[in-house]
Design brief:
The chain is mainly α. 81% of the residues lie in helices and 0% in strands.
Length: 134
């Protein structure tokens, strides 16, 4: 069996760091003390976010972290975890566009997350086809 390339390991590790930063963001946004210190527009965006949008954000970041850990462990379940993560990121982007409009800020935050999710899912599917995942 062929071993994964250096780029595979690099992308999986960077994806894990990215996803863990998202997990920290999710945790801080659910911390009342942190949220009260934000400016009014950010505070109202977070506090008025519907449950489904918060759940999508959680699925995106935690699914990405689990998926990247599974990539590093070379497990085929990474494909499903990263697929769920991408769906969460797409729903998060949808919510942000719905509430904030299609702006540079939205594309920089949620849009980049969707792009990263696509890359991670593609890498996991390519690794499965190459037999790197078991």
């Amino acid at each position: 069996m062929e071993k994964p390339s250096f780029s595979y390991w690099s992308i999986a590790a960077l994806g894990l760091v990215w996803s863990l930063m998202g997990c920290v963001s999710y945790i801080t946004q659910n911390n009342a003390d942190f949220v009260t210190q934000l400016a009014e527009p950010q505070r109202s965006f977070i506090t008025q976010r519907p449950f489904w949008a918060s759940a999508a954000f959680a699925v995106a970041v935690y699914g990405g972290a689990v998926g990247c850990i599974l990539l590093l462990l070379r497990r085929v379940a990474a494909v499903q975890a990263l697929g769920l993560s991408l769906m969460g990121a797409l729903l998060t982007l949808f919510y942000m566009v719905l509430t904030l409009g299609l702006s540079v800020g939205v594309l920089q935050s949620a849009g980049v997350s969707v792009l990263v999710g696509c890359v991670l899912l593609w890498i996991s599917m390519a690794a499965r086809v190459r037999g790197w995942l078991r």
